[in-house]
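Q: Could you write out the predicted structure for this multi-component system? I'm mainly interested in how the pieces pack against one another.
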Amino acid sequence: MGLHSLIDPRIDLVRFLTPEGDLCEDAPLPISDEALLDLYRAMTKTRAFDGKAIALQRTGQLGTFASALGQEAVGVGVASAMEARDVLVPSYRDHAAQFLRGMSMAECLLYWGGDERGSDFAGPRGDFPNCVPVATQVAHAVGAAYAFALRKEERVAVTFVGDGGTSNGAFYEPLNMAGVWNAPVVIVINNNGWAISTPRSLESAAATLAQKGVAAGVACQQVDGNDVVAVHDTARRAIARARAGEGPMLIEALTYRLGDHTTADDATRYRDPEVVQREWTREPISRLRAYLLCKGLWSKQQEGELLQECAAEVAAAVATYMATPPASSDAMFNYLYAEVPRALEAQRETARRFASRK
Amino acid sequence: MAELNLVESINAALGCEMARDDSVLLLGEDIGANGGVFRATNGLQARFGRGRVIDTPLAEGGIAGVAVGMAAMGLKPVAEIQFTGFIYPTIDQMINHASRLRNRTRGRLTCPMVLRSPYGAGIHAPEHHSESPEALFAHMPGLRVVIPSSPARAYGLLLAAIRDPDPVVFFEPTRLYRLFKQEVADNGESLPLDTCFLCREGRDATIVAWGAMVPEAMRSAEALALDGLDVEVLDVATLKPFDIETILQSVEKTGRCVIVHEAPRTAGFGAEIAAEIAERALYSLLAPIKRVTAYDVVVPLSRLEKQYVPSVERINDAVRGLMEGS
């Protein structure tokens, strides 16, 4: 996993499981059976959550939502390789990772349901909130990593950016700084093939997105983003490397967005249904399930129990979310500055006066 | 006490706060060995090391963005943008992230950063070096916009900006950098933010100004005094959130107000002050509120610069006009 020659920037692709769930090579997976089952459960939980969140949006009970359907292995694989002391700097489609970090499903629903308290999550308190302006979060991760290095803390910042995000200048500037500063940061490109309706082929003429690290002197690597073992192992090695002071790493995870961009999007307008059908045969959860079943690590009964468990957890989160009343109008003013400035106090009072007239 | 010019007082404040607080660090282009193109960071890298005085790659958006990440993780970054014409790429990070982080996370993460930049016309600089974009930043909820008008105020306000728990955009009037010296006590004492400063008391009219226009307003007041006019001068200093109470008190006393700024007129910050006075002190006014501003044109190159920036004569003319009109 090194940097390749500048003249021939071939990028290695890491993969352990074939789409059919077979081992790529005749070697054991670099992960324990128990850890493997944890990854499977986490991916299944995220998928159950996504299904419910979309249903809530369709029935007017949630705002616009960005599902992670088909990309569960990226978030779960990366976050499972992080330690609590590390910092996650997510994009807006990374709740798979956030759940593993400790954000509750109810908090996630609050965020998408239009309540800032969803970003005041209980998970690691240093983790960043969802970032909506594409690629602007990469700089935050590099800045956080610089802080860790300056204070000699063995912590790593991990961030996600989409394939479209790598076309943005906001991606390149901090990537370049990360290289210059040898910052302990891992930047994961969640290449799901689409930037809303714009396919990967219209985003970049580069053979891989990972090779964008080459120009910045940042080590880079491609990974099968639907193979959770490959994602986990690659992220684990990248994080260990960064923690040891060996520098930043850019990982391109190749996955596929099986759902719409968000609930406000209709992917049938721009996508070939046959391609989508084919991608369903490569998705991460069925792939790992096939492996687990074949190895005797999983059963149909366990699957049924897990799905029930997930449904119950999601239902409980929905109940908590629905039972949370909106904050008062004061909440708009109280957190803008450390102390509410005098000029703003008058406006807060006006808002209060009109809020109480309802 | 040492006699310092404005840029030296900036340097003194940075050095003082870095020595006092390990979490303060500087980043920007050419701020290390070169000490910044205006020498605001002169000698600081030698004193505090490359880890805390960072020569960054040429990437203004990236500079602001990494500062957000550093600030959220407990550092107090002071980022220098070399010239205001280059500050626009930072707006994305400042409006979408720096200004909102505390609010978005209900106070879980905060962003105690300072974005410093020289600003304004008057030094015969090349294109894109003389802009006054304070109103753009003052429009963003969650930011503070601070502009000193003298070496002593630069020292005290910059210390306050660095110590403030929220993001501050700190504009330094380039033409005042070396215009005059003043006694500045390098004693670590800050000046209050969100507060207007009374520069000169008077009964007949109030001139409200900030940055490089404050010395011009003072010169105008002194010239008008020879005609027997007693003019009060206020330095706004913090544009967001601004101290309207002090301005109202002054205008209620004098009954006349001239607002002076070197940014273009339309939607300039003068319009905000005029609107507040109109809403809250209209019946104290003996004459209409007057603005003396730059024109709604691109900052010209140096040969027309003097025609662009409000002059003492234009300020005098405005005050006299108000006296005659009432």
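A: Regarding packing and overall arrangement: Chain B touches chain A through 48 residues (CB under 8 Å).
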